[in-house]
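How a chain folds remains the central question behind the approach discussed here. The record that follows shows the chain in one-letter code together with its fold in token form:
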Amino acid sequence: MFHTYEEAVDWIHTRLRLGIKPGLKRMEWMMERLNHPERRMKSVHIGGTNGKGSTVAYLRSILQQAGYQVGTFTSPYFEHFNERISKNGVPINDEDIIQLVNIIYPLALELEKTELGGPSEFEIITVMAMVYFSDLSPVDIVIFEVGLGGRWDSTNIIYPLISIITSIGLDHTNILGNSYEEIAFEKAGIIKNGISLVTAVKQVEALEVIKKTAQEKKASFYELNHQFEIIDNHSLQAGEAFSLRTVFETFHQLEISMVGKHQVENASLAVMASILLKKYYSFMIEETHIQSGLKAAYWPGRFEFISQNPVVIIDGAHNEEGIEALVSELKKRYQDKKIHIVFSALRDKKLDKMIWNLDQVADKIMFVEFDFPRASKAEDLFHISTSNNKDYRHNWKEAIQEEWTKIKEKEILVITGSLYFLSDVKPYIMNLIK
């Protein structure tokens, strides 16, 4: 048994050695032993390649504005492990982590002795969330973010009120497949019999897979640009404004504080989900709650302004689609400025296309590396780039300090790439610019 927070979290992290273990048999075994906490909560399930975390934040904020207690389960954490399990945006406390680990630890030992094998790190954290929200600190509704894929993800043990698939991109192809159809098949695995699906997936081939699954499961289908549509989207100095037309009602003059067309799409998914919660599950959500909830929503590391003078932005664009969205926004907002980029990424990503896109917008690009098992070497990233003004550093702190001290009035600094990288960067640069 564990007596300190450090002991408990260290044990959780030791489960990383087991890697990713697809399948729900271990989850089913643990749910049975714990008297099925997954059945004792109302939930929303959010999957997709990009936009999951932001959509969680928008929906949570709307529900909170309506007066509900909202649990969230998200990954990865940005600065602190406890963020993964939060209540009304406040991370779980250390004492509850210890209590939950002590509940699950003996089950993990017992499970290891079976033919199923021991649970993975992600399975353990998922179970912790379910026990927390059903028994230790019950809430009105829990929003679960899929960890990887959907069909065999440990969160897929739940039977939600609504399912959301944000987008499809060519990420984690070594696990999920090399085509949009294959990845869509895995993502569509969260669709449940008779449970409404809301989606912003755009690729025709991916949509066909998702629609087919929804039809087979007799799940009502709400698709962006069909059952709900963004109208009059325009950028604000720090955010976006738009209206949303749905099959039920139209919302005018909505505002969000996060930047980019993709964030408007994520917000529209949350609004559509909130309408369905109100219409079919008697959640008391009014238009004022939607307006105030969207404006208040915040998710770290998504085109986040760390400084306005000079402009310093961090953005967790960790795959090709994320980089494309970032580059598009930089071109739209900063045509009159020179853009300096600091980039680091995991080596299992499609780095050539990501870096090519950054090269198109960067006046200078600096490649760095960070302490993480799957992190790319700075020199390897440097050699992929075709930029005429590129450099690399092994020490990312020195690189960022160097760029920060050199930035001029008509220049901006953008630090982007892996979320694991940005989780180290943010506290460092916040201290640097004080």
User: Anything to note?
Assistant: The longest helix spans residues 261-281. The chain has a mean pLDDT of 94. The longest strand covers residues 228-236. The CA atoms of residues 369 and 378 lie 5 Å apart.
